[in-house]
Amino acid sequence: MHSKTLQCLLATLFVAGVAVIPLGAAAQEDTAAAPGEPVVLTFKLRPNSPGFDPDVAADIAEFEQMMADAGTPVTVDLQYFAGPNAEYTTKNTLELRSGQGPDLLFEETGRSQNYMRAGFLMPLDDYVADWELWDQVIEPFRRWMGYDGHVYMIPIQSSAIPLYYRKDLFAQAGLPAEWQPTSWQEILDAAEQIKASLPGVTPLLFIGGKEAGAQVTFSRFNLLFNGAGGLLYDYDDEKWVVTSQPLLDVFEFYQTMAERGLLNPERAVGGQANDWSIEAFQNGTGAINLYGSWAYMFHWSEGRSHPIPDLQDTVGYARMPAREPGASYRGQDWVSQSGGWNYMIPASSTERADTAWELIKFLSATERQAKYNATKGQAATRRDVMQHPTFQANPFLAETSKWLEYTYMKPHFVAGFAGGPENAIREAIGRIIIGEWTGREAMEQFAREMEQIMGPDKIKYEIDL
Predict the structure, then answer these.
(1) Containing H/E element for 142?
(2) What is the pLDDT of residue 52?
(3) What DSSP string runs through 196-216?
(4) Closest Cα to residue 206, out of 161, 176, 158?
(5) Is it the case that residue 128 has pLDDT exceeding 90?
(6) What gap in Å lies between CA 42 and CA 455, rounded to an integer?
(7) What distance in Å separates the CA atoms of residue 213 and residue 209, rounded to the nearest whole number?
(8) Rounded to an integer, what distance in angstroms lies between the CA atom of residue 447 and that of residue 459?
(9) In this structure, are residues 359 and 43 in contact, taking their beta carbons and an 8 Å threshold?
């Protein structure tokens, strides 16, 4: 990326309301242990991290024993943070800015992009060069774990976005139990057949509106936009693309769904829309839902918030196709969307970086990582983990993890995306769903709002209004 881009973005981007600025002169107090004394390694965690695995105490004890046997005793200080994600990120940002971060940090991919640019993290190039498992990391994740030619993060978990469908409703509508559409048109065709056969069922559980939440964009718009060949930010021109044929294609696809009565305008827009889409799929009043893999594991599985009886027999999951074969931004037939969580070593941890890396390697060993991903119901980001019997024992995870080969990662400048395009996109989609705007009108309104938010010098038009 051009240095001008970095300067502009760092001047405007925020992480959870805290400005991202380069690491200052403040440095963590030197707490290196005297010879023979254990190194105290601080490791900051969230509830979805390996630190909350039932066997973490035994794993950490094993690591500490391994290091002691090697003559470099270590005591791992696990620092759990159980509050909201926004508070976690705010606290991390403040600590990293002041040079008081932990020795090892567990953070989300999108938010961590700003940490790399601000100089908060230590480059891991020398470490991964000698780590045989780095080559097992799937390419989209290898690419997004770094910045400016350096590696800063180690991915450990992610998700895919399946196109779920109710097999029981498909059977009633005369549709196949094993369904894999290859274009948007085939999705529309199936939805039309459901509408004609099952009057009380919403064929497509697509949602919109500012209040509907991030899943409007993350689980739905982003896949459609990438599948139409779209790119929302032009890295060469350093501008947001506010009008384009792919953007118009997506908005007009929503217009088609709305005009044909394939959506539910009364429930698909508003603050409860996301919950409604989960519940409607659970109770069989909705037939097709484009949603994250976590829904299968944490909403619809037995013992979860919205269990579906006989889940494996009742629910099918297909890959999301591009608009038509080969139409995606990378010329592929399929699209998915991923975020994820990663290990990273703060730049302030110079005295304990080697030890932190040893803990990363230990926790990332194939068998241990496979158990963690399977236990947490998370897609694997490495091929060796995907192939492990422990992970393969879950057919859903084994299949959907394969889709990460062609996934798109959460928008690179996640703070800028949330602060500008995301709300405008949600609003546009919501207006289309309730019939207030056509697809072209939605693109025009999006462009005008983006010009006001970002400024005319930060946007570009590929289609004249």
Answers:
(1) helix 139-144
(2) 54
(3) HH-TTSEEE---BSGGG-THH
(4) 161
(5) yes
(6) 43
(7) 8
(8) 8
(9) yes
φ, ψ dihedrals at 67, nearest 5° = -70, -40
Confidence of residue 261 (pLDDT cuts 50, 70, 90): very high
For β-strands 239-243 and 459-461, DSSP reports them as: parallel
Other beta carbons within 10 Å of 199: 7
Largest CA distance in the chain: 77
User: Which helix (H) or strand (E) element contains residue 376?
Assistant: helix 366-376
* Cα atoms in the Cβ-side hemisphere of radius 13 Å centred on 362: 19
The Cα 307–Cα 155 span in angstroms is: 29
Distance of CA 309 to the CA centre of its chain: 28
- Look at 89-93, 321-325, 429-433 and tell me which has the smallest mean pLDDT: 89-93
Inform me whether the pLDDT recorded for 432 exceeds 90. yes
Asked if the model's pLDDT at residue 430 lies above 70, the reply is: yes
Structure tokens at 188: 């529309």
Q: Nearest Cα to 451, choosing from 242, 230, 236, 234?
A: 242
Tokens in use for 120? 């908060």
pLDDT 10s digits, 146-199? 989 999 999 999 999 999 999 999 999 999 999 999 999 999 999 999 999 999
Residues 6+ positions from 162 with CB-CB distance below 8 Å: 290, 291, 293, 296, 317, 318, 319, 320, 400, 403
Q: How far apart are alpha carbons 1 and 238 in whole angstroms?
A: 9
